Amino acid sequence: MKIKLSLFLSFFIIYSLSAQEYIVKVQKEGSKKFSYLTINGESQIETAYFDATDFGEEGIAIAKITVSSFYQIYDKKGEIINSEAIIKPIINEWSSIASGFIDGMVITKINENYGAVNYEGKLSVPGVYTKLTEFNGNHAIGTKGRVYFVVNNKGEEIKLDIPKIRAAKHFSEGLAPIKIKGAYGYIDTLGQVVIRPKYKSTGHFNGGVAWAKNLDGRVGYIDKSGKWLVEPIFIIGDDYDPESGYARVKSTRGWAYIDTANQFTNLGVTNDYFNFSEGLAINRENGRIGFIDHTGEWVIKPYFAVAHKFTNGFARVQVNGKWGLIDKKGEWLVEPNYKEIGNAVLIKELNYLAQ
After folding, report:
1. Average pLDDT over residues 199-225
2. How is residue 198 annotated by DSSP?
3. What value, to the nearest 5°, has the Cα angle with vertex 193 and ends 187 and 199?
4. How confident is the model at residue 320 (pLDDT cuts 50, 70, 90)?
5. How confident is the model at residue 355 (pLDDT cuts 50, 70, 90)?
6. Buried-state track 270-300, b at ≥16 Cβ within 10 A, e below 16
7. Is 293 a residue whose pLDDT tops 50?
8. What is the pLDDT of residues 102-118, one digit of tens each?
9. pLDDT of residue 7
């Protein structure tokens, strides 16, 4: 495997590929801190940070200097973007990692409620919500007590005039799961019910397909009209991957893959079944991990001790206890020299970043 990048003594890497810029978070062995670096670019950031998030696609991240300091907003040049509110991000209880910018917004706690700051540092969603989901497609779901609202990234809200709402999840492809009485359905960004509540639980749409669990507790897959594409006969169903055309499901016979034509597939590599993501799935052979495609062929031969799914065209992998980053050909973009590494993010071109 060839080294495509020249690494400096710093722990955030920006990778430029065909005029596209990627940013990934890493942490050096023996260090408890993070910092930023531009590779194949014109600037670098040498300040070390106690904690830092992955960048959002706008080229913005949040980080803090010390344990006791507040999070601040930084652009890809390392310059601070002043915020109208103190950033107190949601911390994932399982991973203890702070949530950064998603869809151009970072959710922050304001007093006892929640609001959202945009990538320009403006408190565009006021801190008036008891709960606030992440933004997707410029929309989120917020609650004020037991009252639910669709909220856009400008802070405009639509009250959901729907009785007996019990729960709601974030939007995906313009639809959000919502629980009314004892069943889940979906609403659109105007707050209208577009798939009536008839499921015990539901997932998020990906490529126009979402898993859903019927009231008997069996999982199948639906389209955006609520029609069953795959009948609910499974114990567990994971998110559908439109690039491979498969979803991972579990029946009484074990794990398998299924497509929206209701065809089972045994890829015949090993007995391990992992989710497909961006057309590839993790698989294992002789204690090592690689990636297979939708035909079951090895695209990246088993070489790694640990691997994460592909995100934005890249995967985090571990060799000899150290993390690096590979592309879909299995070539190193970042050699495995790090204690920790984040997901690579493709940075959009934003006018204000060039100013």
Report:
1. 97
2. E
3. 80
4. very high
5. very low
6. eeebbbbbbbbbbbbeeeebbbbbbeeeebb
7. yes
8. 999 999 999 999 999 99
9. 39
Query: Distance of alpha carbon 297 from its chain centroid, rounded?
Result: 26
Q: What is the pLDDT of residue 12?
A: 52
Total Cβ atoms within 10 A of residue 85 = 17
What is the identity of the amino acid at 178? I
As a whole number of angstroms, the distance between CA 34 and CA 52 comes to 7
pLDDT confidence bin for 9, thresholds 50/70/90: very low
Which residue type does 156 have?
Answer: E
215 residue type, one letter:
L
- Residue 52 and residue 63 in contact, taking contact as beta carbons nearer than 8 Å: yes
Using the 8-state DSSP alphabet, how is residue 141 labeled? E
CA–CA separation, 261 vs 242, rounded Å?
Answer: 13
Task: Assess contact for 172 and 161: CB atoms under 8 A.
Answer: no
* Secondary structure class of 63 (helix, strand, coil): strand
Distance CA 111, CA 18 (A): 45
Residue 68 CB burial class (10 angstroms; 0-12, 13-18, ≥19): exposed
d(CA 152, CA 333): 36
pLDDT at 2: 38
Q: Is the pLDDT of residue 23 over 50?
A: yes
Instruction: Count Cβ neighbours within 10 Å for each residue of 42-51 and write b for 16 or more, e otherwise.
Output: eebbeebbeb
As given in the structure block, the two tokens for residue 154 are: 């400008």
Burial 176-198 (b: 16+ CB within 10 A, else e): bbbbbeebbbbbbbebeeebebe
